[in-house]
Amino acid sequence: MSGMVLVFDFDKTIIDVDSDNWVVDELGATDLFNQLLPTMPWNSLMDRMMKELQTQGKTIQDIEEVLKRVPIHPRIVPAIKSAHALGCDLRVISDANVFFIETILKHLGIRDCFSEINTNPGYVDEEDRLRILPYVDFQKSPHGCNLCPPNMCKGMIVERIQATMAKEGKKRMMYLGDGIGDFCPSLKLREADFVMPRKDFPAWNLINKNRTLVKAGVHEWTDGEELEHILLQWINTINIEESQLLSVENCKLETMSKAGHGALPQPLPVPY
Ligand SMILES: [Mg+2]
Ligand SMILES: [Zn+2]
């Protein structure tokens, strides 16, 4: 274990488009979507759209097929596999839904690289219709963050992960994202952390305008190739730093025991 937690947004970060728009557009329901958008929250609209698509004769299999051909930069999957192989703890925080994300990640063969997917629940009901629910029940218990949409505050999820990191001996977080919803979690990061906003996207604009509010290191990225490069370089740098720290610690301990301070317990004699 490397002690690093990598948190990925999904839409326009792991995949190159927004999965909600992708499904609606590919199944020919763009006009209806645009017509209904001003009348309800995005998350509720997606649930409604799944009903409309079913009425138009589209099946769960049609949705799965569309998801399996979602555009993704060819270096994203290798980047994720490398980070996982280097011992990082990878997680997703996304305002898409669990059905879309699981279908795509399984299809790409990288579902098992992620220890956790935090997103809006989604399931196929008894009428074979995909239902999409909000992550936070905003009618019953609103999250109260005014930077985030009513159904999800990504910053709160980051805080929850931070609270468990210490117990698990994990020290640093990297956060990768593009959207407005990725600004709030960027503000929760600490000095040793790192945020990678996608260049010229809303999160990048917000971070640049509010640089003094962001404690973490910031590095922009443009496409999957750049993402892979920066990500692996960061992991490498931290690994080198930590192994140097470790050898300094070991040196100190050695010096102490040589000096006869008795700081280290003596090994028991091996019985023959
Ligand atoms: Mg996104
Ligand atoms: Zn928030």
What features would you describe in this structure?
By secondary structure, this protein is of the alpha/beta class. The protein has one domain (4-232): 3-Layer(aba) Sandwich (Rossmann fold). 45% of the residues lie in helices and 14% in strands. The protein contains ten helices and eight strands. It has helices at 19-26, 30-36, 42-55, 60-68, 76-85, 98-108, 154-167, 183-188, 202-209, 224-258; strands at residues 4-8, 89-97, 114-120, 122-124, 130-132, 172-177, 194-197, 217-218. The chain has a six-stranded parallel β-sheet with strand order 3-2-1-6-7-8, with helices on both faces. The chain has a two-stranded antiparallel ribbon with strand order 4-5. Helix 5 packs parallel to helix 10 (224-258). The chain is elongated, with a radius of gyration of 22 Å. The protein starts with a strand and ends in a 14-residue tail after the last helix. The site of zinc ion has 6 residues, from loops.
